[in-house]
């Protein structure tokens, strides 16, 4: 089933059924309310959408944890597919990436390809058929021109990497049932964070995020940074000692599976 249809069945908030353009959706997503039940679901496997919440509670704990695990891995694979193809296309576009920056993106591209291979292999080993790579439109219907403008290429690269970092962190609880997968996911998360920091600095930004400010990013990417301004951690106000900017930057926030998938889906056709 198409990933957009999966999300449409997962939520009834009309997010994917309005006349609003995908670019406008990305801009406005952070202000749209998500129902509590929807926000708690990482990606929305067919199992969760074809049965009632009451029926779900009757599943054995083993089945529940496997569902959460494969759900999280499928989300990760979707994001890695997106990044892998993005860098592949960028590197294959003559004259786009300056020779001084090419080694960086060649290395990042290799990492993303390795992540795709790992996630597909892991899903297969768990008895789940990996989803096929979606068809991507990195122009978002003509709103961007990342393969004609290097600055725009960097902007989307930063948005994708920052999304990936937050999304992996948000799925940690769903892969804890498998220690080997948890360890690998944490290792990938660290690499994605290094990618994000590198790309951010290539754009003249700080390597970290302060107060939900992506740093020289267009408003259309606001959803990627929504919630990053939080300074309350387990009841402690991190802004007390060093101020709100340092307090928020000291703790990188998670991105829910629903929001991470919604962001990625804006580039899926």
From TrEMBL:
Pfam families (alphabetical): Ferritin_2
InterPro entries: Ferritin-like_SF
Protein name per its UniProtKB record: Ferritin-like domain-containing protein
Organism: Chryseobacterium polytrichastri
């Amino acid at each position: 089933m198409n990933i957009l249809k999966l999300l449409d069945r997962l939520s009834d908030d009309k997010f994917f059924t309005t006349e609003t353009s995908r670019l406008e959706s990305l801009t406005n997503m952070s202000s749209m309310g998500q129902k509590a039940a929807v926000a708690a679901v990482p990606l929305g496997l067919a199992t969760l959408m074809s049965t009632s919440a009451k029926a779900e509670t009757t599943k054995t704990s083993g089945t529940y944890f496997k569902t959460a695990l494969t759900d999280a891995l499928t989300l990760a694979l979707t994001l890695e597919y997106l990044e892998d193809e993005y860098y592949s296309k960028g590197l294959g576009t003559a004259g786009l990436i300056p020779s001084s920056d090419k080694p960086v993106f060649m290395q990042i591209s290799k990492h993303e390809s390795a992540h795709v291979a790992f996630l597909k292999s892991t899903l297969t080993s768990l008895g789940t058929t990996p989803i096929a790579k979606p068809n991507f439109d990195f122009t978002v219907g003509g709103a961007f021109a990342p393969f004609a403008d290097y600055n725009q290429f960097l902007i989307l690269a930063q948005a994708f990497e920052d999304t990936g970092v937050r999304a992996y962190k948000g799925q940690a609880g769903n892969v804890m049932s498998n220690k080997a997968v948890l360890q690998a996911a944490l290792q990938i998360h660290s690499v994605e964070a290094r990618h994000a920091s590198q790309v951010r600095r290539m754009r003249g930004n700080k390597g970290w995020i302060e107060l939900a400010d992506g740093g020289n990013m267009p408003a259309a990417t606001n959803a990627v940074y929504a919630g990053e301004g939080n300074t309350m951690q387990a009841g402690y106000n991190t802004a007390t000692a060093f101020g709100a900017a340092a307090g928020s930057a000291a703790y990188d926030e998670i991105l829910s599976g629903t929001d991470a998938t919604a962001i990625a889906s804006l580039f899926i056709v």
